[in-house]
Q: What sequence folds into this?
């Protein structure tokens, strides 16, 4: 039985799929009556991303779409010249027809080929976060620009001091290397971060270049989890990054 889904190009491709494609080549898209969502992790498991877009559909029951190559799928959807268009979900493919001017059929994988991510997003959402702050994308990009100078390090430390939040590009375990410290927020909610949070820079770098104005950053001290959350319109993206030991 086929299902017909309306796709809004900017939200679905730019805000939902593009951020996910930075982490994973193949994903499971879960299509429900009021949203489409996915959860997947980077190849080394350092980062987990949860992405959800609110949308209304008339599907009879939830569907799981096993996308074998997300970057190719995004490029294929980009070929469609309309901003809003309809695709058809068949048993083993996704198809599109535009009065013969441009058509495609994109085949899906069978269940079981893509490993299931076992992270329970409801448990992540229910955690208490001891510290949180807003980070503008301009400040974030400034920090990323500094990576060219601190190329000997692959760590980013977050900490608070005198009511402000700082990011330090450094490796405190290695002596005599270039380092830069940025003030990234003039305020925060919750507890001070007196012991800097060490994050793998490659993990954080996956967020750079995304189309957003700000990122909400939250830290759970018990499980050493840092959440970088982006909410733009009807799309929610959460990058879940575990801290390094030191």
A:
């Amino acid at each position: 039985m086929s299902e017909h889904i309306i796709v809004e190009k900017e939200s679905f491709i730019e805000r939902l799929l593009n951020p996910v494609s930075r982490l994973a080549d193949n994903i499971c898209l879960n299509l429900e009556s009021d949203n489409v969502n996915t959860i997947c992790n980077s190849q080394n498991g350092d980062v987990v991303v949860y992405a959800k877009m609110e949308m209304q559909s008339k599907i009879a029951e939830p569907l799981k779409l096993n996308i074998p190559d997300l970057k190719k799928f995004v490029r294929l959807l980009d070929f469609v010249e309309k901003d809003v268009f309809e695709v058809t979900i068949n048993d083993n493919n996704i198809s599109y027809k535009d009065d013969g001017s441009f058509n495609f059929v994109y085949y899906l994988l069978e269940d079981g080929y893509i490993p299931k991510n076992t992270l329970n997003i409801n448990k992540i959402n229910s955690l208490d976060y001891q510290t949180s702050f807003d980070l503008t994308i301009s400040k974030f990009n400034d920090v990323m620009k500094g990576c060219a100078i601190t190329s000997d390090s692959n760590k980013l430390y977050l900490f608070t001091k005198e009511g402000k939040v700082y990011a330090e590009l450094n490796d405190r375990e290695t002596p005599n290397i270039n380092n830069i410290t940025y003030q990234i927020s003039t305020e925060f909610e919750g507890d001070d971060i007196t012991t800097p949070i060490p994050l793998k820079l490659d993990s954080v770098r996956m967020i750079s270049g995304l189309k957003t104005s700000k990122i909400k950053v939250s830290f759970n001290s018990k499980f050493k989890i840092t959440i970088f959350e982006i909410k733009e319109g009807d799309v929610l993206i959460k990058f879940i990054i575990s801290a390094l030991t030191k």
User: Anything to note?
Assistant: The helical segments are 9-21, 70-78, 121-126, 137-145, 201-205.
